[in-house]
Design goal:
This protein has 104 residues and is of the alpha+beta class. The protein has a domain of 60 residues. 23% of the residues lie in helices and 37% in strands. It is built from one helix and three strands. Strands 1-2-3 form a three-stranded antiparallel beta sheet, with no helix packed on it. Strand 2 and strand 3 form a beta hairpin. 0% of the residues are buried.
């Protein structure tokens, strides 16, 4: 009985010693550290621009007054804008002029 116990302990010890050495030999090489490239500015916001815009709106109101008049506002809007931008790295500055109007 004693012999079987010592044989079992020896087998377990030899397996444990062999596993440790085999695991250390199987480690992969470390990958090189990747350094990201510097960011690239893909858009340029500098320069002249021009545009137009328009729209239409309507509404419905009710007033509790003596005349009983209820307004139903509606109408269109048109306009335009133009400007110039300067870009300094990540900062954009500029000047703009715009106008809006409604048909009479």
């Amino acid at each position: 009985m004693r012999t079987k116990l010592w044989c079992g302990i020896g087998v377990v010890a030899s397996i444990a010693a062999g596993v440790g050495a085999a695991s250390a030999a199987d480690l992969a090489a470390r990958a090189p550290v990747y350094k990201a490239p510097p960011p690239v500015i893909l858009s340029d916001w500098a320069g002249f621009y021009i545009g137009i815009h328009g729209g239409y709106g309507w509404g419905d109101t009710s007033f509790d007054n003596f005349t009983g008049d209820n307004a139903k506002p509606k109408g269109g809007l048109f306009g335009g804008h133009a400007g110039y931008n300067w870009q300094y790295g990540n900062v954009v500055t500029g000047l703009e002029a715009d106008f809006d109007g409604v048909p009479a």
